[in-house]
Fold this sequence. Notes:
By secondary structure, the protein is an alpha/beta fold. It folds into 3 domains: 1-30, no CATH class; 32-286, no CATH class; 303-418, no CATH class. It is built from 17 helices and 8 strands. The strands form 2 sheets. The protein has a 6-stranded mixed β-sheet with strand order 6-3-5-4-7-8. It is globular. 29% of the residues are buried.
Amino acid sequence: MKSPVFKKRYAKEIAAKAKAEKARAAKGITNEIFGAVPSWIRPLLDDLKAFSPKFEEIKWRTNYAFEEDRRDFIFKLTALSSAFPDTGVRPDMEEDELQKVTDQSDKDLLRELWELSSGTTDEASLLATMKFEYSSHVMFDIFRATKAGSLLFDVSGMNEDARRQFRERMAVVEELRQICGNGGFLAWDVGERIVMCRRAYAIGLLSRKRFWQICDSMAARVAAYYDNWGDYAISYVCGDIFYILGRLSKDRVSQRSVSTYIRGKFARMRELSVPGGVWRSFGWPRYDREAKKLAIAMKDIIPMVPDWEEPKSCLASDRITVDGAKVGYMRYERPTSGGDSGWVLAAGDESDEYMRDPKNMGTYDINAICNYDPDITEFIDFQIGCVIRRSNGGDLRLVSPKWVMVVLTVARGIGKALGWLMV
């Protein structure tokens, strides 16, 4: 079911797609987005469901200082890597210092192979390749947004084969979500991207300084996203399965090899997690010990405004993000930087003293605040100078400037009369 806010904002698009869907339904084609899980992958999912509770029972060490241990942490994030050893690069990189390929002929060969396989020739193309190749978590977020009603897919317009594949993948995502929760597939994407960065450093495409800068950022996000190595490992394997699903040929030999491969991952996870194992010895770090305890965890944020192309940064009061209060006041100021949306949001019951203390405010993605209060989604594309307050009846209303209020009132009146707008 689509949310009321979503329906109101995308009324025309929904109406047009509903008309197209009706026409296709007459031909026996529906817009159902979920299909059946492929039979060959069902045993793997069942094995993973049986395996994951054992990881949940482990008492993992946590709260290590990320700043002190970040380099070891980054190496250990690649311990489940599926990347195959390259010429001149040892396969046990996850527990060693950064390596360089010393043989020039090996280095030249690897550079040539990377260029042929992915067009990777320098740092810019490396980052583009990583983003394209390892973005399974994006699909996970698309799935969650579609299920929540903030994203509309018209699969009925696809050809039969594409429609079947899409529905199968959505069904598998739902099964995997039941295993990994909202942790999704971020662990897989980050682990594999770090491996790519290590190999890029080994053949001279990245400097040591740039390697740590890029990987620090990814590791910090993972450290904030998951609670322990068990959560990370389950998310990693779920992402691995989903990644393989999109690239696997249909022959039974390939399917059997995948089963062997994933079960090998289970064995590696056990090895890392036994008493004295790498993951049991090295605690899960906490990136920011002074970080606020947010009412909605990072991994529970879903895309609420997937079509938003404007700057995303906004200021929000802790009454919203920490206490979980609804937005009661929002003001659109002139942006101070390229990434600033201009929005300042508060619960509306804060004192002047509270609002003057910068510790009570934070900078967030506007999409995150839409998760805290979906009511704001119909106002975020208003203009500079607009002020919105929550009325005593509970609805957000534009209170200034007056000319915007008049224009909107007239537009809604005309639209209602002509049936253009859903009000």
